[in-house]
Design a protein that fits this description.
Blueprint: H1 2-12, H2 17-34, H3 41-51, H4 54-61, H5 71-97, H6 110-146, H7 181-198, H8 201-204, E1 206-211, E2 214-220, H9 224-229, H10 231-251, H11 256-277, H12 285-294, H13 297-327
Antiparallel strand pairs: 1-2
Helix pairs in contact: 1-2, 1-4, 5-6, 5-7, 5-10, 6-7, 7-10, 10-11, 11-13
Length: 330
Amino acid sequence: MELIELYIQEVTRRLPEKNRDDIALELQSTIEDMLCKDYTEQDVKEVLKKLGDPVTLASGYRDRPMHLIGPRYYDVYISLLKMILPISAVLSLISLIGDGTFVDLGEKTVIEVIFIIIGKGIVGIFGTAIQVFFWLTLLFAVLERTDTSKDHRPLTKGFKRWTPDDLKQISNISAKKAITKVEIFGGLLGIGIFAALYFNASSLLGVYESSKDGLTFVTPTFNQEVLNAYWLLIFCIIILGVCLAIYKLLAGQWTLKLAWLHTFYQLFTTIAFIIIISNPHLLTDDFLAYMTKIFSIGEWKDSIYWGLILLVIFFAAFDAYQGFRKAKIR
């Protein structure tokens, strides 16, 4: 029964959404009519073999022909496109994180920096996607037109002819367990923004006051020399974050192994945060003097310190728990 459902799913997912339900019912009825009363898995395979490759069957239901890439190569082409595009986009974002412009952002404000990074990320992904799409499409268009084989039956991802056994290789991932590309790209952009803010904290993060010309930067919050002293720790966080994003992209879903790796990363970043925030010289003297005018030093400093630590631990634990919860979904 599972083979029948997978076969129908393989046919209908290639069709317009409005026609899928009707064609699924029609196919279900056709297959049941072709089977005997006490059928076996081998009987199902024989019936599916008679119906043929899902790609060919789906193309027969379509009311318009496939254009530049024909049925023989279309499925392989789409599969490769779906596989290569996200990888290329991730590599594009990784190169963005290593961009030298993050080292010196001049007089730009925090909001400007965030918009610059997001803009560069989107432009980089878009440019990479166009390049991949163009060259892969050109490759398959040439391949199809130079194919002298008399066999026009569609090929599978492995460039082989389809058999019912291919259905067993299809993974049916729950939407609640799947890792979306948006989550991965958002994570990489977040790492890029964090790196830019951390290594330019003295000119971006601090006290702003409103003036005639808008917001004016009064004094930095963090001592940049202290932050730079932990560059190796931050570098490890960035590298581990990028590696984890790549692993998520390849895995495509939450597993217990991924949940443990994710927990280790959360633990590492939390410890790093506590180490850095515990440095007594992290805040600048000017910032402390400014805040002392507003609050009593003993009232706000310790409260913020412990409040931030508890907040980071809470969100890290919650994020780690979500990983295990999703990994256990079937």
